[in-house]
Design brief:
globular, single chain, about 475 residues, Serine Threonine Protein Phosphatase 5, Tetratricopeptide repeat, about 70% helix
Length: about 475
């Protein structure tokens, strides 16, 4: 039976099959266009990223491997030092392309004065990280002793890489150039430091040296004025000042410079934050003792004592560690503890002049002059021309029964070391106690001619007033 059409809808009114927008030719929505374009860009970006990864991988595979770190023969080294070197080398082997690991090995080697292998490490580190200024700087420092011309080249390269306000590398370069006779270049670098800091004692000393070398002594005097006060430059500055005054014919000033120069202690190392990094890597008996000695000199006595106690535990046969520990304990007020450790040092090294002297001084401070005399006599037996030992012996013989021996000891101290002002003072005290007041006055006046500084000068004047009393 034939089905009739739906009376409610004509054929034209029936809903046709839905056609897609694409087939219908309708434009895409903005969101779909964005998704389509983003997808294309992601595809392109992913392709580029993949290509870069592949290129980097090919580069890494094809790039020649850096040379291995140098092998160091540590036979006979302190075990702690050998262990530190082995550990640093293993770190460099584990990261063959790490400039930091290679440079640190060089720093450990330089800290323990293994210079040849340190130079090799710094050269390798500089090749791995050509923009890092520390590696050419350390390379130059490792070359200073054996090849100063090469050192100047690498220090100059480092100065160019460091920031302009890092004065230590520029000062090292200037000093090196000056030692090579390259005055104009050295002076240029000193002046750059001077312009930043017109009171720099280091630049002042350098410019003074350069002016003196250029035969400009008056100009040298102007620069040296600031350098004569700093503990890192004053002795070198007074040495140069003596020379300048002699050249200018200033006899009185030259004599004053000579006296001052004889009194001054050695200059302290000037601050270099980069070499301080190297020094921190020092280990072993010598390094610990040297560091403790520096701390004692700069007032860090308690820290020095702790480090020296660790040193004695690690190196129980180190008489030098015991000597410095005894000195530190005495300065901390522990005279009994100082004497105990110094006795151990003397038993280990009875020929040690410094241990015998320190033990004697410690015993004197405890009021035991008889025991101290044995120490000073042992020091004199080992080193007969040591004026300080004769002076200390004179002090320990100061009693009435030993007065003649005390006078003889003080006179021998003065003969061996005429500028030992304390010996004149000790001699005058014993002479006055012996009733020889005129002789005491004579010795005190001789001492005052040296122009001693306070408070020693005040002590001499006090004794002179006592000796002049009727």
């Amino acid at each position: 039976m034939k089905r009739k059409a739906d009376p409610l809808k004509t054929p034209d009114q029936r809903v046709p099959a839905v056609k897609s927008q694409k087939s219908a030719g309708n434009p895409a929505s903005p969101r779909r266009r964005f998704r389509s374009r983003w997808g294309r860009w992601l595809g392109i970006g992913g392709g580029i990223g993949l290509w870069l990864v592949v290129a980097w991988g090919i580069r890494e595979v094809c790039r020649p491997a850096p040379p291995p770190p140098p092998v160091v023969n540590t036979t006979g080294f302190d075990p702690l030092i050998a262990s530190a070197i082995a550990k640093a080398r293993q770190a460099a082997l584990s990261a063959p392309r790490s400039a930091t690991a290679r440079g640190r090995l060089g720093m450990v080697l330089l800290a323990h004065e293994v210079r040849a292998e340190a130079r090799e490490c710094f050269a390798q580190a500089a090749a791995l990280a050509p923009r890092e200024p520390r590696w050419p700087y350390f390379l130059g420092m490792a070359q200073l002793v054996d090849n100063p011309m090469a050192a100047a080249t690498n220090l100059d390269r480092a100065v160019g890489l460091f920031r302009g306000n890092e004065f230590a590398p520029r000062l090292r370069l200037a000093d090196t150039l000056l030692s090579l006779g390259r005055l104009e270049e050295a002076e240029t670098h000193y002046r750059q430091i001077w312009q930043r800091d017109p009171k720099s004692p280091f630049a002042g000393l350098g410019l003074g040296k350069a002016a003196n070398a250029r035969d400009r002594p008056v100009e040298a005097l102007e620069f040296l004025a600031v350098a004569t006060q700093h503990p890192s430059t004053r002795k070198a500055a007074h040495r140069l000042l003596l020379n300048v005054n002699q050249r200018l014919g200033r006899t009185n000033e030259a004599e004053q410079s000579a006296r001052r120069l004889a009194e001054l202690p050695n200059d302290q190392p000037w601050p270099d934050p980069f070499m301080a990094e190297v020094e921190k890597l020092q280990s072993g008996e010598k390094a610990w003792i040297d560091l403790a000695d520096e701390w004692i000199k700069t007032g860090r006595v308690a820290e020095a004592a702790r480090l020296l106690e660790q040193t004695v535990r690690t190196y129980p046969n180190s008489d030098r560690a015991m000597f410095f520990l005894g000195r530190a304990r005495l300065r901390l007020g522990d005279a009994a503890g100082a004497e105990a450790i110094l006795l151990q040092a003397v038993r280990l090294a009875p020929e040690s002049v410094e241990a015998q002297m320190q033990l004697g001084v410690t015993r004197l401070s405890r009021g035991h002059p008889k025991e101290a005399q044995a120490c000073f006599r042992a020091a004199i037996q080992a080193k007969p021309n040591l004026g300080e030992a004769w002076f200390n012996l004179g002090l320990s013989l100061g009693g009435e029964q030993d007065r003649a021996d005390s006078l003889a000891a003080f006179r021998e101290a003065i003969r061996l070391k005429p500028d030992l002002i304390e010996a004149y003072l000790g001699l005058a005290v014993v002479l006055r106690a012996d009733g020889q007041k005129q002789a005491a006055v004579h010795e005190l006046q001789r001492a005052l001619e040296f122009g001693p500084e306070e408070p020693l000068r005040r002590k001499l004047l006090d004794q002179l007033r006592l000796a002049q009393q009727p």
